């Protein structure tokens, strides 16, 4: 079954069209990357199935079902959790409270506070600290942990390497590979080539809001990737 599928999707912010005829899908156990330079529409893919951008044409299915009218909780209830670009940690809440917020959708599964703390021990140590008092890398761990608390079948990662040191990116890559090995599907929206190489198996390349190329990462050289993706 497809966890997320776009079929000939156009999407808009007001009257401004961003996505043009975008089609792709992600099934159980798959690790897919959406690639492209800044401003080509990568984050708009996420915003469209979250209902932030407007669906103008085409169809989006979530967990194999047409999404119909998309609301901000539709994807979460269908088993899709998003780690957003910029993390969006709530500073008025503690680390623990940010994590508990992720479980609000009340979707059954194995992810608990204890399991997140085992995955990211620093969050256990700082659980009573304001979420925004953490370092950038720790905030990204918090954003990932919060998304996992919704017990997703598909984890969407929007520019997870942004602003992070290489050593932290390596640590996160290990986490993503581990999650995939435990059966979580991944959609990685990213420009960092080494992270893409370690995490994703297949890719869709966006340019000017359209998919211009798709395939397996193994088929591409780094030089070919660099033509489309900033390092």
TrEMBL record:
Entry GO MF terms: ATP binding; ATP hydrolysis activity; branched-chain amino acid transmembrane transporter activity
SUPFAM superfamilies associated with the record: P-loop containing nucleoside triphosphate hydrolases (SSF52540)
Domain ABC transporter: 4-231
Listed SMART domains: AAA (SM00382)
CDD domains: ABC_TM1139_LivF_branched (cd03224)
Entry keyword set: Amino-acid transport, ATP-binding, Nucleotide-binding, Transport
Single GO biological process annotation from the record: L-amino acid transport
Assigned protein family: Belongs to the ABC transporter superfamily.
PANTHER family xrefs: HIGH-AFFINITY BRANCHED-CHAIN AMINO ACID TRANSPORT ATP-BINDING PROTEIN LIVF
Name of the protein in question: Amino acid/amide ABC transporter ATP-binding protein 2, HAAT family
Organism of origin: Bosea lathyri
């Amino acid at each position: 079954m497809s966890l997320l599928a776009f079929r000939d999707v156009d999407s808009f912010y007001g009257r401004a069209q961003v996505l043009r005829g975008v089609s792709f899908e992600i099934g159980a156990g798959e690790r897919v990357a959406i690639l492209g330079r800044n401003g080509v529409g990568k984050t708009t893919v996420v915003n469209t199935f979250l209902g932030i951008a407007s669906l103008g044409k085409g169809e989006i299915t979530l967990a194999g079902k047409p999404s119909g009218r998309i609301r901000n909780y539709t994807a979460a209830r269908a088993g899709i959790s998003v780690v957003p670009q910029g993390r969006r940690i709530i500073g008025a809440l503690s680390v623990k409270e940010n994590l508990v917020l992720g479980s609000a959708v009340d979707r059954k599964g194995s992810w608990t506070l204890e399991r997140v703390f085992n995955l990211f021990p620093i969050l256990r140590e700082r659980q009573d600290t304001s979420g925004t008092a953490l370092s950038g890398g720790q905030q990204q761990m918090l954003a990932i942990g919060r998304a996992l608390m919704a017990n997703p079948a598909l984890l969407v990662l929007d520019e997870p390497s942004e602003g992070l040191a290489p050593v932290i990116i390596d640590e996160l890559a290990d986490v993503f590979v581990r999650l995939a090995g435990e059966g979580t599907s991944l959609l990685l929206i990213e420009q960092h080539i080494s992270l893409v190489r370690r995490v994703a198996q297949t890719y869709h390349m966006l340019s000017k809001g359209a998919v211009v190329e798709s395939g397996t990462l193994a088929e591409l050289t780094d030089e070919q990737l660099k033509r489309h993706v900033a390092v």
